[in-house]
Structure formats: C-alpha cells, structure tokens
Amino acid sequence: MSILDFLFKKQTNIEASEVLNAEDFRNAISNKKVQLVDVRTSREFTSGHIKGAQNIDFFKQPEFKATFSKMNKDEPVYLYCQSGNRSQKAAKKLVAMGFSTVYDLRGGYSMWKY
C-alpha cells in the first residue's frame, strides 16, 4: 500500500462516520426501515432502548463482528450506546469493516427524549 493509498483510505474512513444530534437522529430513523443498533450490554438494552433497535453488545467482540458481517454494508447504520463513547468506537470498527455510512447518536441514549 502506498502512502497516498493509506492517506486516501484514512480520509474515506473519517468521512464515513458522522455524529448526529438527537433530533436529526430521530428524523433519520423515523418512518423507514433502517439498520438501527444499540451497542450497549443486553442488561442496558433491556432497561430501555429506541424502538426498532437491534442489540449488538460492543464488549462481545467475536459476536459483534460476526453479527455485523451479516449486515448490508452499503446501507447506513445508525448506532448508539449510553453516552456516545462505545458507539464512537463501534463506528470506527464498522468503517474499518467496510461499512459505507455510519451515524452515531451524540450523547447516546442518555440524550434520547423521544
């Protein structure tokens, strides 16, 4: 891999992930079928989650990667966790796995008021 290839790939990765505020996130996921993923633990998910979300625990990496590898990489993925930290890490992993567009909920589920 040349330096230019490396730099171009790095730039592409940066552009493939975007953080949305709660209102923009809600508008993006409402009224359509989307790949909406809660990357919190199953216990956190059970205590409350965004309607329609699938739970894929970020801390269970073999299962995390295996489940995402079965998803459509060309369709946007909408992620959230409790505060935004795990979902940012998850977004980076998904971009590295080849997902074209990943959106993350700024502030996580703690900012969700809908």
Automatic annotation (TrEMBL):
Residues 30-114 form the Rhodanese domain. InterPro entries: Rhodanese-like_dom, Rhodanese-like_dom_sf, Thiosulfate_ST/Rhodanese-like. Pfam families: Rhodanese (PF00581). It comes from the Bacteria. This is Rhodanese-like domain-containing protein. It comes from Flagellimonas aquimarina. The lineage of its organism: Bacteria, Pseudomonadati, Bacteroidota, Flavobacteriia, Flavobacteriales.
